[in-house]
Amino acid sequence: MSFDHLQQLIKAKKNPTVAGLDPKPEYVPPHLLKASLDKYGETLEGAADAIYQFNVGLMDALCDIVPAVKPQSAFYERLGWQGMLVLEKTIRYAQDKGFFVIADAKRGDIGSTAQAYSEAWLGKTRVGQTELSAFNADCLTINGYLGSDGIDPFLETCRREDKCFFNLVKTSNPSSGELQDMVAGDRVVYQVMGDLTARLGRDDIGKFGYSRAGAVVGATYPSDLRSLRKRLEHTFFLVPGYGAQGGTAEDVRFAFDKYGRGAIVNASRSIMCAWQKTGHDGQDYQDAARAAAEAMRDDIKQFVTIL
Question: Per the CB 3.0–4.6 Å rule, which of 193, 235, 245, 260 could disulfide with 241?
Answer without folding.
Answer: 245
